[in-house]
Amino acid sequence: SFILASIPGLEAAHFWMAIFLCSMYIVAVAGNCAVLFIVKMEPSLHAPMYFFLCMLAAIDLALSTSTVPRVLSFYWFNTREISFGACLVQMFLIHSLSAIESSVLLAMAVDRYVAICHPLRHAAILTNTVTAKIGLVAMARGVLFFLPLPLLLLPLPFCSSRELSHSFCLHQDVMNLACANTTPSVVYGLTAILLVMGLDSVLICLSYILILKAVLRLASWKERLKVFSTCVAHICVVLAFYVPLIGLSVVHRFGRDLAPLVHITMGNIYILVPTVLNPIIYGVRTKQ
């Protein structure tokens, strides 16, 4: 088993930290469930953009539910131990769901590109069937790319420290505790992230470069702002996903000597902030 990380010197504050995390979790669950319910009940929202938003909400619900209840159990009941099998399952869920979310964000960027650059063909290109197929491909991509991560860790011996640097299990964190050659796991993990999150981020940037070129061809600034304002919510959601992801990666790569508080805080931000912000951002920016 592994030992989940606690913040040295702040053990007495775990109860109040758990209340704060629980409040954020309740907001995330309520917001994402509201998105799913509203889109289901309102026929005018049965369009690709809102179906992608539902996929995003479902992923956020699964991602937060796979981690936050275990973190709350640790903070409230001091159950710091997590079994090896449970840790690998949680690790797989976190990484695969993050990959699926990245793919859905790319699909939403493509939806905005088609809607702005080819408005007359939008309904013909992004039908409900095509949207469902994109969702299935995103799911298969996330699962297939990140299923090998726990499988590569299964045969490794863990004979030194058992304490993780987060309140949940991440691949880099668990891998660092192995007392054997982890080169295959390091290489595959980096390759998977570059081919999924890395490639997706590049394609999202490319889609917005094309959108910006199309917007700048419009005659008036009023028209330009009106068209580009339809992308603001998606841009904010993309930033809410990728900024914590990059921050967590930087902390893992260059911040091994940083205080445990930094690692734990960055991990909690990565898990909770996007799931809380996504329904709020779309709720504020989308009149429908």
TrEMBL record:
<feature type="transmembrane region" description="Helical">
    <location>
        <begin position="261"/>
        <end position="284"/>
    </location>
</feature>
<dbReference type="InterPro" id="IPR017452">
    <property type="entry name" value="GPCR_Rhodpsn_7TM"/>
</dbReference>
<protein>
    <recommendedName>
        <fullName>Olfactory receptor</fullName>
    </recommendedName>
</protein>
<dbReference type="GO" id="GO:0005886">
    <property type="term" value="C:plasma membrane"/>
</dbReference>
<feature type="transmembrane region" description="Helical">
    <location>
        <begin position="50"/>
        <end position="76"/>
    </location>
</feature>
<keyword id="KW-0297">G-protein coupled receptor</keyword>
<feature type="transmembrane region" description="Helical">
    <location>
        <begin position="232"/>
        <end position="255"/>
    </location>
</feature>
<dbReference type="GO" id="GO:0004984">
    <property type="term" value="F:olfactory receptor activity"/>
</dbReference>
<keyword id="KW-0807">Transducer</keyword>
<keyword id="KW-0552">Olfaction</keyword>
<dbReference type="GO" id="GO:0004930">
    <property type="term" value="F:G protein-coupled receptor activity"/>
</dbReference>
<feature type="transmembrane region" description="Helical">
    <location>
        <begin position="82"/>
        <end position="109"/>
    </location>
</feature>
<feature type="domain" description="G-protein coupled receptors family 1 profile">
    <location>
        <begin position="31"/>
        <end position="282"/>
    </location>
</feature>
<keyword id="KW-0472">Membrane</keyword>
<keyword id="KW-0812">Transmembrane</keyword>
<comment type="similarity">
    <text>Belongs to the G-protein coupled receptor 1 family.</text>
</comment>
<feature type="transmembrane region" description="Helical">
    <location>
        <begin position="130"/>
        <end position="154"/>
    </location>
</feature>
<feature type="transmembrane region" description="Helical">
    <location>
        <begin position="15"/>
        <end position="38"/>
    </location>
</feature>
<dbReference type="Pfam" id="PF13853">
    <property type="entry name" value="7tm_4"/>
</dbReference>
<dbReference type="InterPro" id="IPR000725">
    <property type="entry name" value="Olfact_rcpt"/>
</dbReference>
<dbReference type="InterPro" id="IPR050402">
    <property type="entry name" value="OR51/52/56-like"/>
</dbReference>
<keyword id="KW-0716">Sensory transduction</keyword>
<keyword id="KW-0675">Receptor</keyword>
<keyword id="KW-1133">Transmembrane helix</keyword>
<dbReference type="GO" id="GO:0071396">
    <property type="term" value="P:cellular response to lipid"/>
</dbReference>
<keyword id="KW-1003">Cell membrane</keyword>
<dbReference type="InterPro" id="IPR000276">
    <property type="entry name" value="GPCR_Rhodpsn"/>
</dbReference>
<feature type="transmembrane region" description="Helical">
    <location>
        <begin position="186"/>
        <end position="211"/>
    </location>
</feature>
